[in-house]
Amino acid sequence: MDNKKSVIWWIRRDIRLHDNQALSAALATDLPVVPIYILDDNLLKQSNLKRLNFLFENLHSLDTFLQEKGNHLIIRSGNPFNCLKNLFRESNADAIFTEADFSPYAKDRDEKIASAVPLHLLPGMSIRAPSEVYKQDGKPYTVFTPYSHQWHSSIPSFPPLKIPDQIPALFDLTSEPIPASIPHPLFPAGERIAVERLQDFLNKHIQTYSMNRDLVGVEGTSNLSPYFHFGVLSARSAYYLAELQKQDQVSIQAVNSIEAWINELVWRDFYIMILSEFPHVLKEAFRESYNRIAWRNAEVDFRAWKAGETGYPLVDAGMRQLQETGWMHNRARMIAASFLCKDLLINWQWGESWFNEQLIDGDLAANNGGWQWCAGCGTDATPYFRVFNPIIQSRKFDPTGVYIRTWIPELRNVPTQFIHTPWEMPLELQTKVRCEVGKNYPNRIIEHAFARQRALDAYGRTRV
Length: 464
Ligand SMILES: Cc1cc2nc3c(=O)[nH]c(=O)nc-3n(C[C@H](O)[C@H](O)[C@H](O)COP(=O)(O)OP(=O)(O)OC[C@H]3O[C@@H](n4cnc5c(N)ncnc54)[C@H](O)[C@@H]3O)c2cc1C
Known about the structure:
Layout: E1 6-11, H1 21-27, E2 33-39, H2 41-44, H3 49-68, E3 74-77, H4 80-90, E4 93-99, H5 104-114, E5 119-122, H6 144-153, H7 191-205, H8 209-212, H9 225-229, H10 235-247, H11 252-277, H12 299-307, H13 313-325, H14 330-343, H15 348-358, H16 364-375, H17 390-397, H18 402-407, H19 427-432, H20 448-461
Parallel strand pairs: 1-2, 1-4, 2-3, 4-5
């Protein structure tokens, strides 16, 4: 065993070499760097197969990249406290460098580890750390717009950090194998691909983001969320590159579009901050009164929603896209979530759990924020009386039914006139297009106008 000193780079949600502040701090010590990823059962058991597979794929890719830099990834499984204590001793380490994480579990874990070994927490998960964007009175924001103004007005200028040429290693340390994985057809792993995809989006699509972002059948958004979730892509460098791209634009529409996209990165930061400052959101509504909603919680409706069999084509298309790919378009997430909480009066937490079980980008902060927003009980939520109409939403955001037909083969031959309301098709037409409602495709499980009033009543009762 080597007697040389070293430092540990504990990789968590920063599976990348570019713009990595924890890695950069480790390298600044001029000591060999020991990159470790810990397979922590507490976290792994909360993940789903698609997300785990994507994680393992990215660890394989990081290891290959590290080897090009003269280093390699160490994998250990078990309790992080024990794994790090052992590795600290084995590698004769001076310190551990890692990216700060703001979930209650992570904060608690890091506090315990920091009491035993020198642990340096570096920024990087969000573009602005939660404590960087506070109100004048030193308290956290709870409303997005003023938060975002402050976020922008106080942002320091920075160039993202480059990929290091070399990462000096310490050899002879044992490692478990990286678990086997298979490539995801839509989200290939690795930071090189992630950066290429970002560049492609910035070159070709971001200029029309405002126009296309809500059209569910159009590739109008970046599809980068799984890469941001695992830190395969640095949100900070994405922001920086988008700002650079903005400077080259001449059309107002392109500038507005880039600002709209950056705004989504700010939402990401906002929800990370909310989770950090108000961890109760993981257990209950941000606004206390909404814990009193008398949910119906009908199991049979929940099953239909999960399976994409509510009879409302856009809701069903979204839910089937989710099950098949592990990803869902943002507009479809909003419509499906609203349908669950409002039309079916099912507790938003059931939906939050199901999304977490299915999403490849499943993220504690963003998922919780998204659900609380849709249920109308969150920080900056849509007012409770705004209930999405799934038919109007469908006509507006999938006008010709491209998205619906992609995910619901039963509806493929339904004429556009009826694609959003197949139950209105005359019976002869249903037979002709081989889509008999109630037989090949389900009838609506609820009538929207009735459901809307029922939701308004249930929500209204929490306000007295
Ligand atoms: C009910 C519900 C649940 C959601 N659950 C998640 C989740 O588990 N993980 C997740 O990453 N996003 C979640 N979102 C937010 C959003 O739907 C996805 O981030 C987005 O669809 C990802 O697609 P994209 O990469 O093409 O996004 P783009 O439109 O290209 O946006 C760029 C990036 O900004 C971030 N972002 C975009 N919108 C939001 C938002 N509303 N909140 C926070 N970050 C955002 C994502 O990292 C995204 O990759 C949820 C939204 C809703 C309504």
